[in-house]
Design a protein that fits this description.
about 0% strand
C-alpha cells in the first residue's frame, strides 16, 4: 500500500486522464510507476553498455546491417 499527496491541479489532471482512458487513478499511477521503473532500468543498462566500451555503430549502419534500408 502506498499513499501519496498530490496538489489539486495534478489530481485534476490525473482524474481527467483516468476518465479519458476509462480507468481509475490507481491504475494510471501504477502504469506510470511501472513505465518509470522500466525506463530507469533501460537507462542503467545503456550506461553499463557504454562503460564496457563495446563496438558502436551509427544508426545508418545498424539499419543497413538489419536490412531495413533495402
Amino acid at each position: 500500500m502506498l499513499a501519496i499527496r498530490l496538489d489539486k491541479q495534478l489530481e485534476q489532471e490525473l482524474d481527467l486522464l483516468a476518465k479519458t482512458k476509462g480507468s481509475n487513478r490507481s491504475a494510471i499511477v501504477r502504469e506510470a510507476i511501472i513505465r518509470y521503473l522500466e525506463d530507469n532500468e533501460d537507462l542503467e543498462l545503456a550506461r553499463q553498455a557504454l562503460s564496457e566500451g563495446g563496438d558502436t555503430k551509427s544508426l545508418r549502419q545498424l539499419r543497413t546491417d538489419l536490412g531495413l534500408d533495402n
